[in-house]
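User: Let's play a game. I give you a shape written as tokens, and you guess the letters that built it. Ready? Here's round one.
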């Protein structure tokens, strides 16, 4: 039996490898999974690159940055399977939420402008807002920056963006060490349940179906164990069917709530899996469309255009150089060829293209596929922008920093 040690963080979007293991789906494919829980993304990444794990639940931008050597000597990674889209929120301390006059999610444009106005006012007084993200190279960082910049705030000067690992976000808010955060579930809900924060925006409202976590391998592992990797992908795809089944959702939430996985209350995890979030203490749960997409609409397909958009943000915020070759290198980390090969003949929907114009779909749209009928849901950016991978350099040059 093939064996994979998979590193993960205690987050709801680590659910697919957990379900693949616990429900025996991996074993049916001849794969044995050992799950290794870590407290920070830096640790998950380091275990992977030094061979302590064979694969990892990893931030998409971190996989790209690691492969390109943006913050350390490069280690080539490969991502043939996405573990989910969106699933994060922006949570503010009670005091800051009160100052911007908003205590529930509403118009994300209005919320962004109110936050940007407060940030600029605080910066002018020498008391910048301190906002936490989970890693420098995270979609949390780039989507938060995108939102703030489009709302009239300079993320490099009007706020202070710091890194706090997800399990410590709620405590940091409670202690007043940060004014807000962008993190995945259930850690926003933990802060809200403790009375320490208010959720004011979901990342799905900023970029609907934004790329989030992926299953990462060292490229040499994928090359040497290609058949075994493909078997693991099939198990994860089957896990997606279970997670998407409302009848099995509560059982999945109870599984994730175990101390060796997420270790938080079942009700918080169940709400995230159900696209329902309690925005503030005492509020009823609010349904947020597409809050966390784990399987449907080919959510697990690694679109190379999404990798390229992430690289555009690295360039925008001086985390990478403006270089056409850089876009190609970022795109090469995502491996739709492996995804298609693994799932060929299974009845899974296999998109015909490997890239698309991000942000261009306003209404459900049928697109070409090699297998099955693929309906893509809306993927709009909140400001109406779009990213054409064939004009990537023009896109970066058009964005104000």
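Assistant: Ready! My guess for every position:
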């Amino acid at each position: 039996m093939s064996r994979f040690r998979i590193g993960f963080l205690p987050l709801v979007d680590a659910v697919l490898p957990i379900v693949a293991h616990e429900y025996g789906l991996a074993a049916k494919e001849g794969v044995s999974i050992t799950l290794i829980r870590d407290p920070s993304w830096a640790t998950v990444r380091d275990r992977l690159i030094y061979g302590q794990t064979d694969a990892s639940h990893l931030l998409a931008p971190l996989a790209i940055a690691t492969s390109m050597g943006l913050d350390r000597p490069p280690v080539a990674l490969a991502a043939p399977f996405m573990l989910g889209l969106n699933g994060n929120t922006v949570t503010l301390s009670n005091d800051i939420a009160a100052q911007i006059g908003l205590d529930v999610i509403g118009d994300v444009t209005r919320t962004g402008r109110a936050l940007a106005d407060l940030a600029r006012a605080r910066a002018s007084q020498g008391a910048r807002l301190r906002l936490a993200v989970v890693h420098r190279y995270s979609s949390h960082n780039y989507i938060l920056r995108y939102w703030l910049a489009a709302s009239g705030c300079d993320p490099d000067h009007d706020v202070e963006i710091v890194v706090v690992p997800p399990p410590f976000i709620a405590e940091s808010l409670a202690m007043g060490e940060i004014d807000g955060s962008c993190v995945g579930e259930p850690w926003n809900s933990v802060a809200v349940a403790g009375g320490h924060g208010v959720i004011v925006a979901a990342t799905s409202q900023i970029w609907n179906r934004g790329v989030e976590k992926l299953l990462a391998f060292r490229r040499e592992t994928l090359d040497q164990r290609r058949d075994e990797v493909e078997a693991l992908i099939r198990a994860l795809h089957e896990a997606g069917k279970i997670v998407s089944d409302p009848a099995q959702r509560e059982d999945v939430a109870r599984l994730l709530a175990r101390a060796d996985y997420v270790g938080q209350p079942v009700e918080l995890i169940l709400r995230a899996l159900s696209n329902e979030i309690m925005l503030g203490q005492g509020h009823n749960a609010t349904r947020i469309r597409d809050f966390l997409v784990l399987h449907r609409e080919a959510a697990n397909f690694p679109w190379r255009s999404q990798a390229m958009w992430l690289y555009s943000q690295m360039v925008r915020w001086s985390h990478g150089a403006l270089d056409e070759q850089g876009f190609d290198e970022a795109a090469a980390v995502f491996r739709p060829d492996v995804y298609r090969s693994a799932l060929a003949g299974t009845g899974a929907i296999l998109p015909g293209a490997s890239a698309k114009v991000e942000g261009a779909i306003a209404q459900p749209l049928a697109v070409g596929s090699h297998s099955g009928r693929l309906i893509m849901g809306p993927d709009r950016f909140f400001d109406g922008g779009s990213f054409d991978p064939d004009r990537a350099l023009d896109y970066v040059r058009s964005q104000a920093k």
